[in-house]
Amino acid sequence: MSAVAYLTRNMWAKGELTEPKLIIIFNPPTTAQYTVTYSLLDSNGFPVTDQGTSIIPKGTSKFVKELGDYLNAQQTAKNFGSGTYFIIVKITETNEIWALPLIVTIGYISIPQLPDMDYLQYYTVIDIVTGTYFNLPKTMPILPSDPRFRIYAYFHRGKKGRLIGISEVGTVTFDTGYHQLAIITVTLKFSSVHDMLYHILSHSYGLTDNVALRVLETINMGEVYEALKLLRPFYMFTFIGRTVGIEFDTSKYEIRIKSQVYLGQWDWSKVFSWGAIGCGVAVATATIATALTAGVGAISFPLIAGACIAGGIAGAGLAVATSTSSDQPKEKIIEYHRIVERIITDTKTNNEQYHREATNLLSQWLQQGKITQEDYDKMKKILDDWKTQIDTSLDDILVVSRDSINASYEEGKKEGREEAKWWIMGAGVGGFALGALLGRR
């Protein structure tokens, strides 16, 4: 039997008695009567409800079950709170199982009146504890109202995008306006320098066993900067693409990653395509299952990988540099490009230092007999490849930025002028916290 299961939407608010609906499509239709069970699991995979049961009649091609009444009764009885959960659906006779992510919110708000609603594409809700986000359809009648969640609305008009932050009481916290390009800065905050270094080590590209062991020894001996000197290029290797710079701050236990993205083609999964936050098999399993079987509004993606280590990521923040309308002269139009140009210049200077220090340390370890000639040769080749590829990538980013700014100026003759501005969307602890603060840098 071939079947697909999905939810009509990824959110349930206390008091709702119909939504979300569980839908199971059968192709071909069922040839016998089946029993379907469903229960709610938390993000660690533990049941928080009693199991519900329904009968699917013979000859069914589309089964629909309204889950709101079931969830409302179970929440009253079990008192589970707001957060990210999973509806586990199973057809007993065929042993087919689906894990469908679901936002549960005890409080909710009506959809606020936002500008240009005709251009609204979807709402994004981020759970700051699990780091999981959900794109909800623009037809949503309500949104979560809980400090655990951050809410964003994405608009698209022509070739430009617009991001609006919404507070838990329904007020607008920031509005980027319509633009094509943006610089995204993601800050990963760790509980200690050792947690930070363990994260970097576990995400470094191509380390041989001997080199990895030497680095681990160096970390455990407390030689923080020496470990960082070796690891930086190998950690940065997987970020080559739109990343314009990475900063490592051992005093604040932070890694700051700057990337250029298209606000006009905004997609959270692309912005954070280098990883995901959220620990546990349940999160990964549910994400994979949903991506393969989901309907409208049912896709979710984790954000930042690598939190699942001792200590882990203590928090994260995100900032966006875009442009905004202004009556300033033409010089202001290219300020965004100047920001990009300055970041890339600094990055190239830092990368020269990173390449040199890592090479010198490898040579030192080779002379001391800590690594073999084969280890050195493999690591040196990766270092050289990284330097060549990242320089090429940075040059390409500059070209894209320059071309976009030139195009913006031509359009600006009709629509007004542009100047660069930082929209600060937050910095939090205890999870991935995209806040709702607005400011300049």
Quick recap:
The protein is α+β, with helices and mostly antiparallel strands and 441 residues long. It has two domains: 3-105, Macroglobulin (MG2) domain (Immunoglobulin-like), CATH 2.60.40.1930; 181-432, no CATH class.
Keywords:
disordered C terminus, globular, alpha+beta, 2 domains, 441 residues, Immunoglobulin-like, single chain
List strands and helices in order, with pairings.
Blueprint: E1 3-7, E2 11-13, E3 21-26, E4 34-41, E5 52-56, E6 62-66, H1 68-78, E7 83-91, E8 96-105, E9 108-110, E10 120-127, E11 132-137, E12 142-144, E13 149-157, E14 160-166, E15 172-175, E16 181-190, H2 193-202, H3 209-220, H4 224-236, E17 243-249, E18 254-262, H5 268-271, H6 281-293, E19 300-302, E20 313-326, H7 335-367, H8 373-415, E21 417-427, E22 431-432
Helix pairs in contact: 2-3, 2-4, 3-4, 4-7, 7-8
